[in-house]
Amino acid sequence: MTQDSGGLFSDYQFWMGKLSVWGQASTLETQQDTCRHLPLFQEFLRQMYEALKVMDSSTVIERFPTIGQLLAKTCWNPFILAYDESQKILIWCLRCLINKEPQNSGELKLNSWTRGLLSHILSAFRLNIKEVGLFTQSLGYAPVDYYPSLLKNMVLSLLSELRENHLNGFNTQRRKKISLSKSAIVRLWLRHLPSLEKAMLHLFEKLTSSERNFLRGIECLMKDSLLPEAACHPAIFRIVDEMFRYALLETDGAPEVLATIQVFTWCFVEALEKENKQLKFALKTYFPYASPSLIMVLLQYPKDIPQGLWHQPLKHISEMLREIVEDQTHRSYGGPFESWFLFVHFGGWADIAAEQLLMSEGEPPEALLWLLAFSYSPHDGSQKRAQTMVEVKSVLGRLMKLLRRPTLSAKELQTAVGESQDSDLRPPVCRQLIRCLLLNFLLWAPGGYAVAWEVITLMAQTDEVTHEIIGFLDQTLYRWDRLCMEAPTSRKLARELLTELHAKVSSTDPLNV
């Protein structure tokens, strides 16, 4: 939108008056008025920039002698500066005030003053001591400011970069050139929510463009993002966790999101242990709506527990979750979704439960059956979940009879898991759970190696199931690596199957033809 100078001058006077009123921003009415007018004010700033960019700094001051006051009032209004769009336009406008070759002390003073405002924008808005105290007291960390030299380097770097651009928008590839230390990034995220949200969105963009279901790649991207380390601060953890929650809800529990949350939690726990040999913050600070005793059990690292005793924490986890989910007296810990969302963070326990069901002798433990049924379908009621458990128990019993046989046939396994025309009557979640058990069977049964590819070919009739199997194999290998599992034959088979399936997917992908 363009506007003649007369109209712009009229708007200029109007917004100067508004900014003077907003500067008091101490009443609810004032704050509401600021937010209500913000889109129009941002459009005015854009028009102002269009006018300023064609003038030199001396002409700017001559035409708009109070421009400094207008920009300063804008920069120091937290309700305006909280929006990234406002910050971006303000930087454009402030750049127009800088004289590249100052000729006198007045121009030098203006340059210095402008850089000060840019410093303020980059460090977001500074809270006063009272506000900082109130905010940080409950979180347990002390208020800190950026190092002056760091800010100076940031500002000078940004100004140098802005001079090279045409100031009609930011070139994002050139803008990453400004690098900060880890501690500075964490401080920035603690003070400026939009920058943390952008970091999360940037991570999601990278994850969606990376190889599907490749957990090692997800781990590298996760660690490079610094989010797991920064999440050692409960304030950052809670925000990151909420964004994961929304991603999970928006994608209806997509496997990729589930895997990402699990990898994030692995990395977060590692960073927490590295930073806090003795926990600096209570676990309840990170998971305020969860049972503290349940969190303590989930946090146990399976690697530190003898493999023969894994059934004990699994049983304990199942019993506590079941009591919270099915007992009405524990609603203070949220409904089934909240309990499931917590369990998703430590989803490796569900994978171990599936393996343990095949390793157990005699009757399959009901606690493990319930845990597996709950992890695959948390919204089912107790009656529907009980039906799933009966179905899975029946399939498991038939598989157990075949487990030690040296030779197997694909037809036998199809019959054992009920792969017939009637199997389509099973709920999708039940079919997925049974596929999980069958895949575990193929990896662990002595006769599984010879028939594995034939069985998987029969299973993978759709792209959805194919990607599900790829995800299972990749996640299994990733978990075994983290737990240092000694299973050379099973590892070899899982890697071979994963390679074959990747090749199959690539050959059928129209983008690769």
Structure, described:
This protein is mainly α. The protein is 70% helix and 0% strand. It contains 28 helices and no strands. It has helices at 5-22, 28-52, 57-63, 67-75, 78-81, 84-95, 105-122, 129-137, 148-164, 172-175, 182-191, 193-209, 215-224, 227-230, 234-250, 255-275, 283-286, 292-298, 311-326, 336-345, 348-359, 366-376, 382-402, 410-416, 428-444, 448-459, 463-483, 488-508. Helix 13 (215-224) packs across helix 16, helix 22 (366-376) crosses helix 23 and helix 25 runs antiparallel to helix 26 (448-459). 29% of the residues are buried.
Distance between the ends: 46 Å
Oligomer: single chain
The best one-word shape is elongated
SS-derived structural category:
mainly alpha
Unreliable spans are 124-150, 165-175
Listing every helix as H and every strand as E from the N terminus to the C terminus, the arrangement reads HHHHHHHHHHHHHHHHHHHHHHHHHHHH
Residue fraction in strands: under 5%
The overall strand count is: 0
Biggest pleated sheet: none
* Global mean pLDDT: 80
Number of helices: 28
> In percent, how helical is the residue content?
over 70%
